[in-house]
Amino acid sequence: MRNDTIAAIATPPGVGGIGVIRVSGPEAFTVVSSLVRRPGKPDELPPVPPSHRLTYRLVIDPETREVLDEVLVAFMRAPHTYTCEDVVEIQGHGGPLVLRRILRAVLACGARMAEPGEFTMRAFLNGRLDLSQAEAVMDLIDAQTEAGQRLALQQLRGRLSDQVQEIRHTILGVIAQIEASIDFPEEDVPTPEAEELSPPIVTALEQIQRLLAGAEQGKLFRQGLRTAIIGRPNVGKSSLLNALLRTERAIVTPIAGTTRDTVEEVANLRGIPLHLIDTAGITPTDDPVEQIGVQRSRAAAESADAVLLVFDGSEPLAEQDRRVSAELEMMGFGADEQTHKRPVVIVVNKADRDQRIELDELKQLWPLAPIVHTSTLNNEGLDALEETLAELVLAGRAVNSDSVLVTNTRHQDALRRANEHLQASKASLEQYLPLDFVSIDLRAAYEALGEITGETASDDLLDRIFRDFCIGK
Prior knowledge:
This protein is of the alpha/beta class and 473 residues long. It has 16 helices and 14 strands. The longest helix is centred in the middle third of the chain and has 25 residues, at 159-183.
């Protein structure tokens, strides 16, 4: 039901200075008014204060009349609220127990527990947000870098929606021309020529292709780049992780095989969340614990978007180095863009020592991979390593305040389908096929774009999107 009153704790689990309980729906004011009292007047129902004004109140248990907490309450009248419904927010002390007790009291007075994302779904259903803006709410909450946060905020403010609606408007204009000539032949509506219909279709295609051109980059800013640090034991993988994070996260000792499990942390690479995975050295071993660590290292490499392959520059290439390189090649890593292999950056570590590694031999193993020399002892080469990795994944592009990047895989899929249908309609025009064929593909493109904003989204799609939200949002 979408016309009942819902409630949930809106702040994260755990202890904090303040906790917020949100109530939304037609009975929100009635439910909360029955629970709050003025200090010193436990039997008097206070009037509802002016909208959007914080008032100091006590929350009373409806059964025992016990004071549950001292709170600030904001009564906010529709439609000027997050959900476009009457909303009440109770700001109490941020202890889990006190918040749960207040929530139980709210539910006992007639509200029901909100489902995940139900407040935002109501904002969408009531027209305050379109679907892409609603999805941006969670992107904004989950953003791990400032660049990701800026992109989510742009989407929340409707930058993507505006462009999608502009494309839909262009397509609808062409559909109207075609269908008017088909449906009303008795009105002598002239049949539009291909030369007249083609330019707006080409314009729509160009707009979609511009959005798709930045889609992979946008996905990186939203989801991040999984980067495994791979190499044989004791080449300095854990030291490299610590150096890139600028903190002592992984245990480092001179003893080979210190790392026996994967360690994952997030760094910021030009606004991209860089998910760094420190792995156990890939080496043959009879130790059952080390064997598990090596298996997890291989699994981390297989799931990675990129690899930092670390060698010890103070030693000649070992047979284990060659084995690790061969395994990565079999997993589909390389540096040849034409074969779409996942990128590898060669890290020659321990540059502070005398160098004994043969670079020519290393280049034979990885002829196209960039090579960066580092020393985690004195932080030499770390900036160059970050720059190299950024160039590989961004190809020299950087996000700015004017960028509109498609960060959502669902949106990318809808844009690709719209692009395919527009290409098909353009081909039908060029082949002088009946306009009905052109119209069918134009309508399919129009519908696909409508999935982005939610105008043509099914109930199943809405449920799938909003169930990933946190309760209270």
